[in-house]
Amino acid sequence: MIRQIGLNIAYHRKRKGYTQEQLADRVPMSRGHLSHIESYNVQTKFSVSTLLAIAKALEIEPKLLFEFRE
Fold it and tell me: Are 26 and 12 in contact (CB under 8 A)?
């Protein structure tokens, strides 16, 4: 599930036209940490507050990050 959340973050980031650097600056967090969160191959822990900050920076409802596709 954590990997899918990361993929959803990447999906919504790209829909907004943001680079990882731009989104990381808006959160704020390092680009490297955001990259690890988005990566399917790297499982990185993150807090609920980080997830909420990412959703706010993307101007989306947090629930959209939990919509899992098959």
Answer: no
